[in-house]
Amino acid sequence: MRDILSAGLSRRHVMAGLGGTALAGTMGSMARAKDLLNPPPSLTQLAQSTGRKFGSCIASSHLRHSGAIVQNPRYADLVLNECGIVVPENEMKWQAIRPDAQSFNFTEMDAIAQWAKANSIALRGHTLLWHRPKWFPEWLNNYDFGAQPASEAARLLTHHIETVMKRYGGQIHSWDVVNEAIDHDGHGILATSLSGAMGSGEDVLDLAFHTARQTAPEAQLVYNDYMSWEPQHEAHCNDVLRLLEGFRKRGTPVDALGIQSHIEIFEIDPATGTGPYREKGWRRFLDEVTGMGYKLIVTEFDVKDKALPSDIALRDQKVADFTRRYCDLMLSYPELGDFLAWGLVDKYSWLQGFAPRDDGLEVRCCPYDDDYQPKSMREALALAFEQAVPMA
Ligand code: GLA
């Protein structure tokens, strides 16, 4: 081990390549040792060549230690090998850290932050306000804002944002300040207990961004949403444009649009053999967003494969094709910064529960399969990063 380390590889690289527990067996193999000395570039190394980082969400349950053992060392090693940045899957949300109006519970979020710091991997903040009653803690939906509801709502929100940002401020430089604030039916900002108390959704969102700017003046502040390139997302894209225009008109400090990128093959388009997508409309959308001076960031990339046939090889190839089309388009924008996946290994993806396939088979939505083997989707990402336009 000391020889390999002295050959100029970082310990992180070597440990990731060794796959943690398979240390002895791996050391015996000359071919593998050669791989270790000349490891193929990781996704984040490829992304780095055009100024970006590749990353993924991560759950604290994968990292928890029992004694010196990480709970899921293979997952942790894979993240360390491929990623330059991670984001908490759920551990920073109000539902996770706010048991009630008075207290905070940072146990799980701290575990992620400490692990990222110990491994010199960057961390994003997600999210300071998911402005959707379904994702508020129950106590917040039913909160009694008292005789002066606007000032109590402002106090509560400001206190939350300042507390979280200050705790992780030295480590996090890009924050999803607000997540998914749009009402699809009403086409405006969703009504929540906070907007009811403060008088309007705009007031809530503006306060969130102003507070974030004051608390961390250098940080990138992001509005994050799931508008996407599928035809059924056109109205949502227009709603997001109106929201972003409003931010600019009111001087709300928003730096970037987070494009979640849970892209979906919901039917087969005979023209492409994968899912239908709006290339021109989506480019128009991105052009309008960047034209207003916003940067872009891909925050939660994965692929729903619902309409694809059961056959695994065929399915993986179609998912890879769709990935490549999407990434080539996104990575043609110099305004696009980091690119984060929402999970690396199929079996741990939220989509297994949220969007199960009709045939009952596992959704193949991530770059790695359940045995931690790279799929063609990983290759598609690598090729897209290799050919990306440099980040501005
Ligand atoms: C949204 C949220 C994420 C996550 C996914 C589903 O995209 O922004 O935090 O909850 O849904 O897992």
TrEMBL record:
<keyword id="KW-0624">Polysaccharide degradation</keyword>
<keyword id="KW-0119">Carbohydrate metabolism</keyword>
<dbReference type="GO" id="GO:0031176">
    <property type="term" value="F:endo-1,4-beta-xylanase activity"/>
</dbReference>
<dbReference type="Pfam" id="PF00331">
    <property type="entry name" value="Glyco_hydro_10"/>
</dbReference>
<keyword id="KW-0732">Signal</keyword>
<keyword id="KW-0326">Glycosidase</keyword>
<dbReference type="GO" id="GO:0045493">
    <property type="term" value="P:xylan catabolic process"/>
</dbReference>
<comment type="similarity">
    <text>Belongs to the glycosyl hydrolase 10 (cellulase F) family.</text>
</comment>
<keyword id="KW-0858">Xylan degradation</keyword>
<protein>
    <recommendedName>
        <fullName>Beta-xylanase</fullName>
        <ecNumber>3.2.1.8</ecNumber>
    </recommendedName>
</protein>
<dbReference type="InterPro" id="IPR017853">
    <property type="entry name" value="GH"/>
</dbReference>
<feature type="domain" description="GH10">
    <location>
        <begin position="40"/>
        <end position="384"/>
    </location>
</feature>
<keyword id="KW-0378">Hydrolase</keyword>
<dbReference type="InterPro" id="IPR044846">
    <property type="entry name" value="GH10"/>
</dbReference>
<dbReference type="InterPro" id="IPR006311">
    <property type="entry name" value="TAT_signal"/>
</dbReference>
<dbReference type="InterPro" id="IPR001000">
    <property type="entry name" value="GH10_dom"/>
</dbReference>
